[in-house]
Amino acid sequence: MALIEIDDLSVTFHAKGREVRAVQNVSLSVGAQESYGLVGESGSGKSTILRAICGLAPVSGGTIRIGGQPIDSPRGAAFSRQVQMVFQDPYASLHPRHTIDRTLSEPLAIHGIADADARVKRALSDVGLPPGFRFRFPHQLSGGQRQRVAIARALMLEPSILLLDEPTSALDASVQAETLNLLNRLRAERGLTFLMVSHDLAVIDHMCDRVLVMQHGRAVEELERAALATAEMKTDYARSLFAASADRMLEG
Predict the structure, then answer these.
(1) What's the CA angle centered on 81, arms 101 and 60, to 5 degrees?
(2) Structural domain of residue 60, as residue ranges?
(3) What is the C-alpha to C-alpha distance for residues 42 and 177, in angstroms, rounded to an integer?
(4) What is the mean pLDDT of residues 36-42?
(5) Does the N-terminal or the C-terminal CB of the chain have fewer CB atoms within 10 Å?
(6) What is the radius of gyration, based on Cα positions, of the chain?
(7) What CATH number is associated with residue 167?
(8) Which residue, among 3, 50, 1, 64, has the nearest Cα to 22 in the 3D structure?
(9) Strand 35-39 to 210-215 pairing
């Protein structure tokens, strides 16, 4: 059974008197412990799907199920303990006036989970940060360190699913690789399921078992990792994305 099931999902926004159909009739399923990628240009609707799962975007049609069960609206405590999201910009997603200790302890306090001290130390260790970082503030950390804290915070409630919204795009190339390797290690160690958004096919190829290519809010083509690695795309749009990604790698 799939852990994440999305059937015929549509998301429609109303802004300044006009209707914006951000996602149109998209379906996908993600198996337990699988890493599934959403790729496409800016505005293709890929991040909106993650936000819809979290209740941050208005679902106008279709269904979302986690573990075979439709998700509640608004999302409740049970959802938070099963599904967590890591955002693109770690600085924007961390409270600037909260220490790392408070940032990591807060989800435990909200959910009434004891033993916060040991859990915070373990979380920092799991993401490769020393215990002394507990009492630093976000501005005292590098971009890569802040994203490690954001990942640690997402793991505090021991979820089974991580939604990853361009988690390395704000980082430089060497730190990107470190962060992706960290995520892969955590997935293997904890048996996590990933639904990951990126505009970069090289990142998706490194991280994901399958990928859904999106354009203008619609699903264009689903690819297995082997097809992605050998550039065996069926659609012109997927081929153009692959070519653009390959050109960026050559330029780098």
Answers:
(1) 120
(2) 2-251
(3) 22
(4) 93
(5) C
(6) 18
(7) 3.40.50.300
(8) 50
(9) parallel
E runs forming strands in the chain: 2-15, 18-31, 35-39, 59-66, 69-70, 83-86, 161-165, 193-198, 210-215, 218-224
**Distance in angstroms (rounded) separating the CA atoms of residues 34 and 31:** 5
Q: Are 58 and 13 in contact (CB under 8 A)?
A: yes
Q: What is the value of pTM for the model shown?
A: 0.94
- Measure the CA–CA gap between 49 and 215, rounded to whole angstroms: 13
Q: What is the pLDDT of residues 56-97, one digit of tens each?
A: 999 999 999 999 999 988 899 999 999 999 998 877 889 999
pLDDT of residue 138 exceeding 60: yes
pLDDT for residue 156 is more than 90: yes
Q: Which residue in this structure is represented by tokens 């992706």? A: 180
Number of separate domains in the chain: 1
CB 76 within 8 A of CB 82: no
pLDDT beyond 90 at 174: no
